[in-house]
Design brief:
Layout: H1 10-22, E1 27-30, E2 41-46, E3 49-58, H2 64-83, E4 89-97
Parallel strand pairs: 3-4
Antiparallel strand pairs: 1-3, 2-3
Helix pairs in contact: 1-2
């Protein structure tokens, strides 16, 4: 049996989370913030528990609460499938509605 340890960087997890969020109907894109290393996503890991915060821009007319919940579910499922990571929390901040986000 091979010994060793494999980890996935928070940057990669952030990239996965961003990809998953963009797939949700009603999401126009992610919003850049100086606080986030990955555009629109902050990933924290503490004692083996991963927490994420995503700042999203929604399409005009999208139901913010429903879209945010869908983003939470999509991100959690995507990270479980792609990285075998089950986040402790996925927080979604609706930062814009209707405007096209810069860089998306």
């Amino acid at each position: 049996m091979m010994e060793g340890h494999a980890t996935i960087s928070t940057e990669v997890l952030g990239s996965y989370a961003a990809d998953a969020a963009r797939e949700v109907d009603g999401v126009r894109g992610l919003v850049e913030s100086a606080l986030h290393r990955q555009r629109g996503v902050r990933v924290d890991e503490h004692d083996g528990v991963v927490s994420l915060e995503l700042e999203v821009a929604l399409e005009r007319g999208a139901a913010a609460e429903q879209v945010a919940r869908a983003v939470q579910e999509r991100v959690a499922a995507y990270l479980a499938r792609m990285a075998d990571v089950r986040p402790g929390s996925v927080d979604v901040v609706v930062a814009e509605i209707g405007a096209t986000p810069a860089g998306s």
